Amino acid sequence: MASITLQNIVKEYGDGFPAVNDVSLDIDDGEFVILVGPSGCGKSTLLRMIVGLEDITSGDLLIGGQRVNDLAPRDRNLAMVFQNYALYPHLTVYENIAFPMRLVKGAFGEDEIDRRVRRASTMLELDEHLDRKPGNLSGGQRQRVAMGRAIVREAQAFLFDEPLSNLDAKLRGQMRAEISRLQRQLNTTSVYVTHDQTEAMTLGDRVAVLKKGVLQQVASPRELYEQPANLFVAGFIGAPSMNFVPGTVEGSVLKTPLGDVALPAEAASAGAGRDIVLAGIRPSFFEDASTLSEVQLSKGSTFTAELTHTEWLGNEQYVYVSYENDPRVAETMRTLAEEMDADELRTQLVIAVDAASRLRGGDTARLWIDTRRIHLFDPATGENLTRDAEAGAELTRMAREDRRRDAERAAAGRT
Amino acid sequence: MATGKRLSGRQRLGWTVLTLLVLGYALFPVASILATSFKTQAALGQRAFLPTNWTWDNYAMLFTGDARDLFLPALRNSIGITLIATFIAVVLATLCAYAIARLDFPGKKVILGSALAVSIFPVISVVTPLFNVWRGIGLYDTWPGLIIPYLSLTLPISIWTLSAFFRQIPWELEQAALVDGATQWQAFRRAIVPLAAPGVFTTAILAFFIAWNDFVYGISLTSTEAARPVPAALAFFTGASQFQEPTGAISAAAIVVTIPVVVLVLLFQRRIVSGLTQGAVKG
Ligand SMILES: Nc1ncnc2c1ncn2[C@@H]1O[C@H](COP(=O)(O)OP(=O)(O)OP(=O)(O)O)[C@@H](O)[C@H]1O
Ligand SMILES: [Mg+2]
Q1: C-alpha angle A54-A59-A63 in degrees, rounded to nearest 5
Q2: How does strand A157-161 pair with strand A78-81?
Q3: Looking at the predicted structure, is the pLDDT value of residue B186 above 60?
Q4: Is B189 in contact with A102 (CB distance < 8 Å)?
Q5: Cβ separation of A89 and B280 shorter than 8 Å?
Q6: What's the CA gap between B141 and B127, in Å, rounded?
Q7: If 0-12 CB within 10 Å is exposed, 13-18 middle and 19+ buried, where does residue B27 land?
Q8: Can you tell me whether residue A97 is helix, strand or coil?
Q9: Helix, strand, coil percentages in chain A from 3-state DSSP, rounded to 5
Q10: Closest residue CA from atom 2 of ligand 1
């Protein structure tokens, strides 16, 4: 186990295209860090540089405090799980798992190998498949064999490149829990690449968001959600994604196409004096005003709108409201949609209301916004004008604290 | 449904007939030679397909009789030269094809292109200059003197088939091995070679056939039993007297040299199964 430190890492491919640009990241010993971002943003490239399959163009990579830029993969002692598993088809499951140990001549006796393979196979419930070939296994079983191969050797860190993307939804949930449990049990430093929201939010102690090779923000899932650094992070994290409503701050009121919204003092002052800002409002910041008490209503702002349609999903309900977009932010929104791999430009609010709400498409409803949680963004730079760095850091500190408790529990469980 | 079934039945009949035709066309000469090899000298002139009196005389002549001094050394030469040429071709082609499939280096296209160009040259246009050069440097009538030209025949096709084969093996297997702690060589030996084995065997058989069947080099670049291979030696067979054709002995020799090829194919048939890479990566 070891910490991993990336200092100003740059990767340029042969054509001069910087796939990873000036990324610096400190990963603590035992920490679980997720790399997330849209397709082609350089996640795999970054992971492959850490493991040593790709040369680093410039910058330093330290593992356990030691510079490893020029070490071959085998000398870095990391374990990796590939997106398509990369199992050796000519070897049995047993031999696949034993493979890394057999490579080190004389380091492991036959008994030791057997003991470790069996421990891993028990942990991963592969005991009855040890004599089978990977070709005859199901996707989830192959996935577990790949995990087994990674954990038998006491590697310094685990690297995962979208390990669950080839599984169906149900199995993915199951394996996600498995990976989380295993990582906490072994307490091994892990870097996990994904573009799946749920994996990023549930697995990671911290999540690093990449856009076009540039690191946008590294923080705990809660901080990313509550205090995003910029428009891109705000839009990328959370599903359904954040609504961005154009508006102008006049005094303590935000004038939007939806109506006037009263802002808290800090937000109002952050947005004051600007031609136009984008108000980031998550679907869950809204509520059907008729279901709220006076006390709650007074904590936010209300407006009326005609609903275009509603979607009832059992545990929650989405209602949609169309509005006229401001031409001054159309370009920003188009770029954002492109960057996030989203296909359409939405000039439609997504609002999550209580599943019990009887709102229907065509209704004119009074809706409530929790204005305390609104963020204002500069449409030109994407910067979050209302970000509370202090509060954000506190959220990440709390996550680190949780992590430490988990580690202690795991250590206690082992002894 | 019913019509579809009848149609497929008719198709099956069509295919069967076609297969039988092709088989007959391909195997008739072999059967004819086989029959001839068992005929007595007197029966050779007769028009009957099957020998009236079956005899082992022709085979006896090859191994114990007059033709023995011609045939046995030639058989030894053929086997030795062909095996060595095949082995070298397969080893070189494996390494070369691996580099071509895996690495991006300048001149990659040139190598593939020139391999193809070499194999396009007609053997007959090369053999005379080669004859002169070999005489000059002392390779004439030696094993290496045949092995080298055989490599020029077998290497191009070996490189082409093997690089096509290597391209199908997922590169990630090798990367996985590197991460698992293998050296480049170990990754090649333990993750790639086992998967490439069917391709290597296929290539080896192709290369073996090419070298085994060569006649032009064999007859032009040798003069004694020091290096003369079987196809060339057949031309030197003589009958018991000046007026007798050695047809029987030649037929017997032809059958004898066919046997290793058949054995080889039967032996390795099981290994030439593709689909071994199945299960390496997601289904
Ligand atoms: N071998 C290569 N040569 C040139 N460019 C490359 C190479 N590999 C990747 N790239 C480029 O680098 C960028 C980052 O690629 P990378 O594979 O790291 O993306 P990713 O974030 O893993 O995407 P995905 O989610 O689709 O896997 C892409 O724009 C890609 O075109
Ligand atoms: Mg990728």
Answers
A1: 75
A2: parallel
A3: yes
A4: no
A5: yes
A6: 13
A7: exposed
A8: helix
A9: 35, 30, 35
A10: A13
Å from CA of A76 to ligand 2 middle: 21
Q: Is the pTM of this model over 0.90?
A: no
Cα A162 to Cα A164: distance, rounded to the nearest angstrom: 6
In this prediction the ipTM stands at: 0.83
A136 touches chain B (CB under 8 A): yes
At residue A408 the predicted structure's pLDDT band, cuts being 50, 70 and 90, is confident
Q: How far is B150 from chain A (nearest CA, A)?
A: 33
Q: At a CB cut-off of 8 Å and minimum separation 6, what does A85 contact? A: A134, A142, A143, A145, A146, A166, B280, B281, B282
Which residue's structure tokens are 């680190």? A400
Q: How far apart are CA A159 and CA A154, in angstroms?
A: 13
Residues 6+ away with beta carbon under 8 Å from B238: B66, B246
Q: Which chain B residue has the Cα nearest residue A137? A: B279
The residue of chain A nearest to residue B282, with distances taken between CA atoms, is: A84
Say if residues B101 and B160 touch (Cβ distance below 8 Å): no
The pLDDT value given to residue A338: 85
Sequence-separated (6 or more) residues with CB below 8 Å from residue B281: A84, A85, A86, A87, B170, B172, B173
Quick check: B46 contacting A, CB < 8 Å?
no
Residue from A9, A17, A236 to probe ligand 1 pocket by mutation (most atoms less than 8 Å from CB): A17
CA distance B49 to chain A (A): 50
Top residue of A68, A80, A90 to mutate, by most chain B CBs within 10 Å, is: A90
Q: Please tell me the predicted confidence (pLDDT) of residue A105.
A: 79
Residue A200 has which token pair? Answer: 């990023």
Place of tokens 């030691």: A66
Contact at 8 Å (CB) between A93 and A125? no
Q: Is B180's CB within 8 Å of A79's CB?
A: yes
Q: How far is the CA of A57 from the centre of ligand 1 (A)?
A: 15
Strands A189-194 and A206-211: unpaired
Are A356 and A291 spatial neighbours (Cβ–Cβ below 8 Å)?
yes
pLDDT value at B1 more than 60: no
Q: Do A134 and B279 touch (CB under 8 A)?
A: yes
For the domain covering B73-239, report its CATH number: 1.10.3720.10
Distances (CA, A) of A265 to A252, A270, A369, B251: 7, 9, 16, 106
Q: Determine whether the shortest distance from the Cβ of A41 to ligand 1 is under 6 A.
A: yes
Measured in angstroms, how far is the CA atom of residue A212 from the centroid of ligand 1?
10
In one-letter notation, the amino acid at residue A34 is: I
> Hey, which of A11, A12, A13, A15 would you mutate to test ligand 1's pocket, going by the most ligand atoms within 8 Å of its Cβ?
A13
- Average pLDDT estimate for A241-268: 90
